[in-house]
Write a structure and sequence with these properties.
alpha/beta; TIM Barrel; 8-stranded parallel β-barrel; binds the ligand O=C(O)[C@@H](O)C(=O)CO; binds magnesium ion
Length: about 250
């Protein structure tokens, strides 16, 4: 079975962020991710990570928090300086947390110039941080209206064009289902580029076993394929996180 991480931005939200680490460990997760860890001292988060033995496998760039702020600038023409400044800060935080991946968010933009801006910014970031693993994630634009990166073909072209060993794809199977209509077929098409996976049920984006998607089949396929990355639970629990973890117990 894959190794499962808890997204602490969406799970165990009844607890303070620092306390979510222990709850995740107790629930059986072996890693965590935090989308925007910028409002809490990095040393406190890292201490919680060490204490519980759960590595922080992913954070998002740039710094704005979950409650507000644009979802990135990497594709926004004219904001290259801001992108670079924010990326430097994300990099410092990722290093302090020993975070494995940094998801670089494209932001809201459109058109050919946005694509060139995204490629240029990602190339710069991949060069600037050769020891960091960077990801890009297609997101459906119903949930995030106006978001630039909503297409897997485009994401593959970008990764191919930049051809940096530290840049790869983040496959969020919920978004993949909304965007392509078949998240498992999508996995088969993009598998060699995938370095991080996020999961949720469809259509409600709740627990993986709530809704239409067949996760036991996907997990078996990941194993057969030899996927060695993390599978992170990024969903909104129907009731409490704890009461909805049947899928994890079955998978584990
Ligand atoms: O799927 C999502 O929304 C997240 O993974 C993300 O990074 C955008 O906030
Ligand atoms: Mg996601």
């Amino acid at each position: 079975m894959p190794q499962f991480a808890a997204n602490l931005t969406t799970l165990f939200t009844e607890l303070q962020m620092i306390d979510r680490f222990a709850a995740a460990a107790e629930a059986g997760f072996t890693g965590v991710e935090i989308l925007f860890p910028y409002d809490i001292a990095a040393q406190d988060l890292y201490r919680a990570s060490v204490k519980t033995g759960l590595p922080i496998v992913l954070i998002n760039a740039p710094p704005p928090n979950w409650a507000g702020g644009p979802r990135g600038f990497a594709a926004v023409p004219g904001l290259e300086d801001r992108f670079r400044r924010d990326f430097e800060r994300s990099l410092r935080v990722a290093q302090a947390l020993r975070a494995r991946h940094i998801h670089v968010m494209a932001g809201r933009a459109e058109g050919a110039q946005a694509l060139e801006t995204l490629v240029a910014n990602l190339s710069w970031a991949a060069d600037r941080a050769p020891h960091a693993s960077l990801t890009i994630e297609p997101v459906n634009d119903t949930d995030m209206p106006g978001y630039f990166l909503t297409d897997y073909g485009m994401a593959i072209d970008i990764i191919d064009r930049i051809a940096a060993p530290n840049l790869g794809l983040q496959l969020d199977t919920y978004h993949a289902q909304v965007i392509t209509g078949d998240m498992q077929a999508c996995w088969r098409k993009v598998a060699p580029l995938v370095r991080h996976i996020q999961i949720a049920g469809h259509p409600g984006r709740n627990e993986p076993d709530v809704g239409t998607l067949d996760y036991p089949s996907l997990f078996a396929e990941l194993d057969d394929w030899g996927y060695r990355g993390w599978v992170s639970a990024e969903y909104a629990p129907v009731r409490t996180t704890q009461s909805g973890l049947g899928w994890l117990h079955v998978a584990g």
